[in-house]
Amino acid sequence: MTIGLVILIVYTIALLIMAWYTGKDTEKTIKDYTTASSTLGIFVLTLTFSATYHSAYAFMGAYGFCYNHGVGFWVNGIWTVYPGILLWYLGRRFWFMGKKYGYITLSEFLEDTYGSKYLALLVTAISVIFTLPYITMQAIGVAYIFQTISGNLVSFEVGTVLFLILMVLLVWLGGMKGVAWTDAAQGVFMFVGMVIGAYIVVKANFPTFAEGFKEALKINPDLFSLPGAKGTMTNLDWIGRWTTITLGMMMYPHIILRFYAGKSLRILKWSAVSSAAYLTFIYIFTPAVGIIGNVIYPGFKNPDLIFPTMLMDYTPVVFASIIIAGALAASMSTGDSQLHALSSIITIDVYRKYSPKATEIKQYYFAKSLIIIIGLISVIFALTQPGMLVDIITASTGGVVVIAPAVIGALYWKGSTPLGAWASIVSGEVVLICCYLIEGALFGIIPGLWAFMVAIVSFVVVSMFTKARPRTHEIINDLNGFFCGDEEQVSETKNLGLTN
Amino acid sequence: MNGGRIMKKSEKIFAAICIIGLLMVNPPILNVVNSYAKANPLTAGWPTLWIWLEFWYTAVIASFLIAVVKIKNWQKEPNFKEVKDK
Question: How many domains does chain B have?
Answer without folding.
Answer: 1
